[in-house]
Amino acid sequence: MQSLQKIIEILDLEEIEQNHYRANSPDEGWQRVYGGQVIGQALVAASRTVESARHAHSLHGYFLRAGDTRIPILYKVDRIRDGRSFTTRRVVAIQNGEAIFTLSISFQVHEQGLSHQFPMPSAPDPESLMDEDELRAEQAKAWPQDLKDVHTSSSAIQIRHVNPLDLLNPQASDPNQMCWMKTREVLPSDPRLHQCVLAYLSDWSLLDTATRPHAISFLQDNVQMASLDHAMWFHRPFRADQWLLYVQDSPAASGSRGFNRGLIYNQAGDLVASATQEGLMRVVD
Questions:
Q1: Contact 139, 166 (CB under 8 A)
Q2: Which of 76, 3, 63 is nearest to 37 (CA)?
Q3: Residue ranges per structural domain of the chain
Q4: Is the predicted pLDDT of residue 29 greater than 90, yes or no?
Q5: Active site residue 58
Q6: 132 CB burial (10 A radius; 0-12, 13-18, 19+)
Q7: If you average pLDDT over every residue of the chain, what do you get?
Q8: pLDDT tops 50 at residue 1
């Protein structure tokens, strides 16, 4: 089982030069680096160059090349601007001398102001739902052994889907889904760590939303899927080690791309973050 400490270690980058950080990927059998990992690590790198009183309020990233899990990733931070209220950073993730990911992040000092939000939709209590690890283990009884080896290991992250899919034999459904998510163990209190962990989590199921009307999944041999870009906005303080409801929909898919949106609520009903993503969703012969 992947421990929470391992996730924290993945997000704890090594500073090798001013504005330059090095990170590794876990050896979990994936063919490429998980997108949420690169988002989280790039956010860590940017945060290391910003005073602690300022927290990220938005980020926008592009996935340029598939990351190689076998070699380290270099993160280079450009200090774009330091203003009185806002700070801007740009991060480039590099492997083999080529950019694999870019991320722009804006940080802000805490301010009081006008406030409103969409209400949280009704959802079953997370304790009444099956854990994704248990669900996959049940589904995997009918899977080939190679899929079992890669996709049924236990995770430090708890995901509980309201309407789960059979990944190997999906049925067509509406382009929306909800799931509860949190870490299995308690995190340190650093708000920046919770933002980086949520950035890591936010890529977990978002692109899958666009596959639902088409009865396909990333486990099928003729389906090619990859994140193309990702954006997040942090609205209110939260803890990533407490249940968060991820409400996702996909307004459109075209040109082998699926567009997806997500709203993230805490159990009190506060909208704490939002995310959008477009991803490659190609069906091949």
A1: yes
A2: 63
A3: 4-111+129-283
A4: no
A5: no
A6: buried
A7: 91
A8: no
Q: Using CA atoms, how far apart are residues 71 and 30, in angstroms rounded to an integer?
A: 13
Which residue of the set 106, 158, 227, 250 is catalytic?
227
Cβ(131)–Cβ(113) below 8 Å: no
| C-beta of residue 76 within 8 angstroms of C-beta of residue 91 | yes
The string of pLDDT tens digits covering residues 94-152 is: 999 999 999 999 999 999 999 999 999 999 999 999 998 888 877 777 666 666 555 54
Task: Indicate the pTM of the whole model.
Answer: 0.92
- Indicate whether 69 pLDDT > 80: yes
8 Å CB contact between 171 and 233:
no
| From 41, 202, 203, 250, the catalytic residue | 203
277 is catalytic: yes
Query: Torsion angle, CA of 120/35/204/190, rounded to 10 degrees?
Result: -60
Reported as a pLDDT band with limits 50, 70 and 90, residue 157 is confident
220 is catalytic: no
Pick the CATH number of 4-111+129-283 from 2.40.160.210, 3.30.300.30, 3.40.50.300, 2.30.30.40: 2.40.160.210
